Amino acid sequence: AQSVTQLGSHVSVSEGALVLLRCNYSSSVPPYLFWYVQYPNQGLQLLLKYTSAATLVKGINGFEAEFKKSETSFHLTKPSAHMSDAAEYFCAVSDGTGANNLFFGTGTRLTVIP
Amino acid sequence: DTGVSQDPRHKITKRGQNVTFRCDPISEHNRLYWYRQTLGQGPEFLTYFQNEAQLEKSRLLSDRFSAERPKGSFSTLEIQRTEQGDSAMYLCASSLKQGVDGYTFGSGTRLTVV
């Protein structure tokens, strides 16, 4: 079975500061991992994905994430927060073998302080 | 392509009424998924289609819920005899190949049962 745990339901950072959103996964097989962003009353937009290629994955809007198998982690980072980054962020896992759905974490709400 | 479209965006209904939502996926995507998202939670898988075949249903999908994708293009999700606990955002997503490319989500239909 697959699952993800997102540590910290709310994270606040100052504009220009480092963003770090944590995600730990559990999977009985090599996972595929995803980060999605959701703005209020919107659907989810894919930020980046890990699909067993490079462990450091770069996504849109300056975000990146590093897959660390030894730590079962896939934390999302951005060097300098922008006001427009304020949103809800979801980590998700699939087993990558053609399984039929993604398992999402409970989300982390990012607030950016001017 | 305009992405995944969902209609309506918002629906308010009285308890006990039936409601139907529509999803139009990206035209070349053969997989279509329905998720439910309640306040403060991540999306939860409901069901998915490959072309017109419904291949998996979550135990969250009670007998009051039914989904169809008759021609392998658009899909409908019907909820019969709505209950207050059905209030949620219903998200549709489509993909070419699950686990590799991730999903493209629609903006969702927010259902409020009063």
Throw out a few tags for this protein.
heterodimer; A: mainly beta; 12 strands; globular; B: mainly beta; seven-stranded mixed β-sheet; four-stranded antiparallel β-sheet
What would your notes on this structure say?
- The complex is a heterodimer of chains A (114) and B (114).
- With 114 residues, chain A is mainly β.
- Helices cover 0% and strands 51% of the residues of chain A.
- Chain B has 114 residues and is mainly β.
- Chain B contains no helices and eleven strands.
Strand-helix topology:
The complex is a heterodimer of chains A (114) and B (114).
Chain A: E1 3-5, E2 10-14, E3 19-21, E4 24-26, E5 32-38, E6 44-50, E7 56-58, E8 64-68, E9 73-78, E10 87-94, E11 103-104, E12 108-113
Parallel strand pairs in A: 2-12
Antiparallel strand pairs in A: 1-4, 3-9, 5-6, 5-10, 7-8, 8-9, 10-11, 10-12
Chain B: E1 5-7, E2 10-13, E3 19-24, E4 31-37, E5 44-50, E6 53-57, E7 65-68, E8 75-79, E9 88-95, E10 104-105, E11 109-113
Parallel strand pairs in B: 2-11
Antiparallel strand pairs in B: 1-3, 3-8, 4-5, 4-9, 5-6, 7-8, 9-10, 9-11
Work out the largest interface and the residue count of each chain: A-B, 28 and 27 residues
> What is the 3D shape of chain A?
globular
In total, how many beta strands of chain B?
11
Helix-strand topology string of chain B: EEEEEEEEEEE
Low-confidence stretches of chain B: none
Q: What is Rg of chain B?
A: 13 Å
Distance between the amino and carboxyl termini of chain A: 41 Å
Gyration radius of chain A, rounded: 13 Å
Report the helical percentage of chain A: under 10%
Q: Main beta sheet of chain B, described?
A: 7 strands, mixed
Number of helices of chain A: 0
Q: How far apart are the first and last residues' alpha carbons of chain B, in Å?
A: 36 Å
Low-confidence stretches of chain A: none
Mean pLDDT of chain B: 91
Question: If helices are DSSP runs of H or I spanning 4 or more residues, what is the number of helices of chain B?
Answer: 0
* Strand segment tally of chain A: 12
Q: What gross morphology of chain B would you assign?
A: globular
Name the helicity range of chain B: under 10%
Work out the strand percent of chain B. Answer: over 45%
Q: Which H/E pattern describes the elements of chain A?
A: EEEEEEEEEEEE
